[in-house]
Amino acid sequence: MIPAKHDLAEEFPNLSARLTNLDKTSPAFHSALERYEAVDQEIIHYETEAGCSDTYLEDLKKHRLKLKDQLYYRLTHP
Q1: DSSP one-letter string for 4-71
Q2: Per-block average pLDDT, block size 10, for the chain (78 residues)?
Q3: Which residues contact residue 6 at a Cβ distance below 8 angstroms, ignoring those fewer than 6 apart?
Q4: How far apart are CA 62 and CA 41, in angstroms?
Q5: Which of 31, 47, 67, 70 is placed for a possible disulfide with 3 were both Cys, Cβ 3.0 to 4.6 Å?
């Protein structure tokens, strides 16, 4: 099984313009988006190459979901 990258622009296509705008204009949003993307890449790395404990991988996925929720809130609440 090939793990899917969880790109926010693809996950929230109706918010992609706002995502791009906030990424360019809000340093705090940009930083949060970078953290989200780093955790996503770490998950993909462990799922495809390195392997790790199920507990650690589950914790990473929970952290990614928390970051995603925070970013979604910022996208939908100006």
Answers
A1: PP--HHHHSGGGHHHHHHHHHH-HHHHHHHHHHHHHHHHHHHIIIII---HHHHHHHHHHHHHHHHHH
A2: 74 94 96 96 86 88 96 94
A3: 40, 64, 68
A4: 14
A5: 47
